[in-house]
Amino acid sequence: MEMIVTDIPEEKELMFITAKSTGEEYGELNKTAKVDLDNGDTNDFEIRLPKSEWDRESIGYKGRVYIPGTEYGGIVKNIESISESNEVVFSGPTWRGMLEYKVVEPPLGQEHLILSGELNETLKTLIGDRFEDLFAVSAENTGVQVQNWSVDRYVTLYDAIMKLLDQYGYRLDIKYIQPEGLEYGYVQIGAKEKKILNEEYDQECSINLDIEDYRAGVNHLVCAGEGENQDRTILHLYVQEDGTIGDEQYYYGLDEVAAVYIFTSADANQLRQDGTKRLKDLQNYKKCQMTIEDVDLEIGDIVAGYDEVTDTTVMKPIKKKILKINDGQLTIDYEVKGDD
């Protein structure tokens, strides 16, 4: 099945807060600000403000920008002044993005870092004091015990965490905590069970599937390469029952759909490589567009749906969330993970 992408715009009443590098809250981000924040892909943010609406105290280098109680936020690492548009542009990594800029190394004299213990406790071991007092790991007991988990050598902290959590069916939960009183805020991370969303279990949401089940594709590709006449390199490639490409014919008679692929300069190896790629483009496929409304999901949560006509079940995890604010209007788009 081809990649499934979903755009799920939601109108939200959420407000960004700015704070000093120490975590001391300054106030709400000016409503004239334009925000573009990506979690799950580039893991960064950009904020545009008219110069007339900016002051140095409200937001600057190493300053924090966040929506309390959510994952939306990060630290300002770059400031750009644009004369033509009379804007100031602030950008930097999101909290999720900051995890990508730390590397997990094996302990001295050991081949791998080995983790054991309750799941959140292992996250605490991975995080350590890498972020000083900005990051804290949830004290919640998941009930999941990790046994001798071997962390890959020299990987980003983010990749190490995601691989570990995925192994146990959990996702990474991130939220900025803003305590009441004089205490300064911090980023809390922890392990949460993945939510599986479908209309059977959640009648409040609306899942719409648009599925194309294409079965007129080519299943036999005759590949012609270098040489002439009887000396020409000829290769027959066939689609198997499970959709893979092989050398044995599976479809015959009316079920066979054949085509020719000509690559006159290709030797046998090149012809097989390019012919296989070509046949994959020509064979049967299913294409699905999924949209979801009235729901709030996090990266790693799973969306499921079923189409009776094509007898197709779709189950894909959320891989990206993009938050945008433009002219005071806030929208959140989701994208689900597709087959590569």
Summarize the structure.
The protein is mainly beta and 340 residues long. The chain has helices at residues 95-98, 119-127, 157-167, 268-282, and strands spanning 17-19, 25-28, 34-39, 44-50, 64-66, 73-75, 78-82, 87-93, 103-104, 113-118, 135-137, 145-151, 155-156, 170-177, 186-193, 196-197, 206-214, 220-224, 234-239, 245-246, 258-262, 285-293, 302-307, 312-326, 329-336.
Summarize the amount of helix as a percent range. Answer: 10-25%
Please report which band the strand proportion falls in: under 5%, 5-15%, 15-25%, 25-35%, 35-45% or over 45%: 35-45%
The beta-strand count equals 25
Main sheet: strands, sense, barrel = 8 strands, mixed
Quote the distance from N terminus to C terminus: 9 Å
Gross morphology: elongated
Protein name: Phage minor structural protein, N-terminal domain protein
Topology:
Elements: E1 17-19, E2 25-28, E3 34-39, E4 44-50, E5 64-66, E6 73-75, E7 78-82, E8 87-93, H1 95-98, E9 103-104, E10 113-118, H2 119-127, E11 135-137, E12 145-151, E13 155-156, H3 157-167, E14 170-177, E15 186-193, E16 196-197, E17 206-214, E18 220-224, E19 234-239, E20 245-246, E21 258-262, H4 268-282, E22 285-293, E23 302-307, E24 312-326, E25 329-336
Parallel strand pairs: 11-15, 16-23, 18-21
Antiparallel strand pairs: 1-2, 1-5, 3-4, 3-24, 4-8, 5-6, 7-8, 9-13, 10-12, 14-15, 17-22, 18-19, 19-20, 23-24, 24-25
Organism: Dorea formicigenerans ATCC 27755
Protein name: Phage minor structural protein, N-terminal domain protein
